[in-house]
Write a structure and sequence with these properties.
By secondary structure, this protein is of the alpha/beta class. Helix content is 41%, strand content 19%. It has eight helices and six strands; from the N terminus they run αβαβαβαβαβαβαα. It has a six-stranded parallel sheet.
Amino acid sequence: MFGRLFGRRPRVAVEDALWIDRAARDAGWTRWRQAPASLPTVHVVRSSVDMDATLTALSDRRPWRVSDGHEAAELARRLAGPEAVAVALEDRLRASAAGSLTLRAFEARVRSRALRRADDEALIAALTRLGAARITFHGALDEPPIAEHARRLRPLLEHLGVGTTEPVMSEAITGSIARAQR
């Protein structure tokens, strides 16, 4: 309420969904849904290889591909309904955020964390400027920056019966990942 009175945007929810391994993350992050669809979804990837794989995984939902500046400008129109899905390259979204593009509220799902905390903070700032209401980073125990710290966590998760179909989510995990980043 006060944020709107004083012209500031409300704080964006940023969380981590940690999958048991990369294969589980790659199979599940496009299907996983924590809550019923109330916001359009933008899947953020860092490479064109990841984009192609994500588009294929989301093919039944007819995702829209954002890979250049012209397409980023069209994103606002495409994300009209709560079931809308887009797949975007991170650098294109960051460039769009530097301009005057503003979208209606959306959920951002980011494929993996960066090695450096500053890179993730820049992406979070860009997504916030674009209108993200919730940002979820989907990582895996066997990928950087988590892998070297996961040796202790993986046996515990396996003992607790954490499977490959659902990620583990906790504020403690988000804090641990931030500390593990360089």
